Amino acid sequence: MDSLRLSQIAGQFAAQRILVVGDLMLDEFLWGKVSRISPEAPVPVVDVTSESYYPGGAANVARNVREFTTATALMGIAGTDSRGNRLLELLAAGGIDTGEVQRDSERSTTVKTRVIARNQQVVRVDRDYKTPLTREQTQLAIDRLARCIADLDGIIVADYGKGFLTQPLADAICAIATKNHKILTVDPHPHTSLAWHGATAIKPNRAEAFLAAGLAPSEPDDAILAAGRRLLELWQTGSLLITLGEQGMMLFETGRPPYHTPTRAKDVFDVSGAGDTAIAVLTLALCAGATPSQAAELANRASGIVVGKLGTATATMAELQASLADL
């Protein structure tokens, strides 16, 4: 892989205009230390020393995109509760355009709380709220996308199965992107089973790929190859990128042999949000004119950066360029 060409592609990220569409969440981190075991149960007692909050779900994808381009917008729905307010405040402070985010007083904002002690996650507490969009909310999202599509280079769909993405909305996103010749990438959710006809690229992880392909999870390379071939045919996408954790990523394209890029991570502290980084950089690269294999290599390198950080982290342009210097 030509490091100079990859560096040139990354240098074009700042010119891309990206809209992220999907389920919005708030990530809460409680940081502390463990000094004893609870007398009530055989569990550690964490003395909390600090707490921090980050945009989560599709909002974290937008946060990753925003590291590389100021033209980052977000479409989704959030409650009018305190957590929804905090999420919108964080996004605004991060320079992310939230003009396409709907607010719903009947909806509670999903929160993922992670307790971290000694640089390790002790437990995660999920407060999930899965409420499908109403017909009116779906139509409003479609109308807003049709209105802003001319000002975009790419759309990222981040499906976390919380109800924002429905088949009517998915069909409209695909139709609008195809009609306007825009890059459309999808990070799918295995339990929503939405069809994304005409997507430029779809990026499941290993578990999602096996589940969507109807195959039992397996480690051997031939099992991954079988899942990739089946999904490429089933989803009819331009390319399919399966993230494989410590084994890197595997790219599938019709008429081409699979392309494997091994992990570039030097240290792994926290995998939170690594998939969000991957879809963000994959999309930016495709919008900047990269081939699928070049985009996969850049996505893999960016993911290798964030797993070496604690919390819901992002990769920066300086870190990505430094990683390319190792090629």
Which helices and strands occur, and which strands form pairs?
Layout: H1 3-10, E1 18-22, E2 24-37, E3 44-57, H2 58-66, E4 72-79, H3 82-93, E5 97-104, E6 110-117, E7 120-127, H4 135-148, E8 154-158, H5 167-179, E9 183-187, E10 201-202, H6 206-213, H7 221-235, E11 239-243, E12 249-253, E13 259-261, H8 274-287, H9 292-306, H10 317-324
Parallel strand pairs: 1-4, 1-8, 2-6, 4-5, 8-9, 9-10, 10-11
Antiparallel strand pairs: 2-3, 6-7, 11-12, 12-13
What is the helix tally?
10
Low-pLDDT windows of residues: none
Round the Cα radius of gyration to an integer and report it. 19 Å
In CATH, the architecture is 3-Layer(aba) Sandwich
**CATH domain class name:** Alpha Beta
Number of domains: 1
The sequence of SSEs as H and E is HEEEHEHEEEHEHEEHHEEEHHH
Query: What is the fold named in CATH at topology level?
Result: UDP-N-acetylmuramoyl-L-alanine:D-glutamate ligase
- The computed structural class is alpha/beta
The strand order across the widest sheet is 5-4-1-8-9-10-11-12-13
- Mean pLDDT comes to 92
Morphology: globular
For the report, how would you describe the main beta sheet? 9 strands, mixed
Number of strands: 13
CATH superfamily: Ribokinase
Strand content: 25-35%
* Terminus-to-terminus distance: 8 Å
Helix content: 25-40%
